[in-house]
Amino acid sequence: MIRPFDPPPALMLSHAVLDALMPRCDPYEWKIICAVLRHQGEPRMSVGKFMQWTGLQHRKTCFDTLTRCLRKGYLVREPVGNSFTYRPNPELAFPGGAAQ
To answer: Could you list the residue range(s) of the whole structural domain that residue 38 is in?
Structure first.
């Protein structure tokens, strides 16, 4: 049984993720970013896993969205054997003041 309002463990997001990053993302990019944030501990991440986690139904759409997130610098990819893992890009920065 899934109880979505049970207390943590939970993922905490900084205001900057919501205030600065979310408005820059299209809905598919936002789904991929949220999946990466939620599954950071996964040893390997595949397009099939991203499809499962995000509900994206087409492999090409999922792959293209993941590629866009990498190209825009939102995520970084690291090889793990014959696969990859993804994580938020700690170097990502946007112009402007501090997030509230």
So the answer is: 26-88
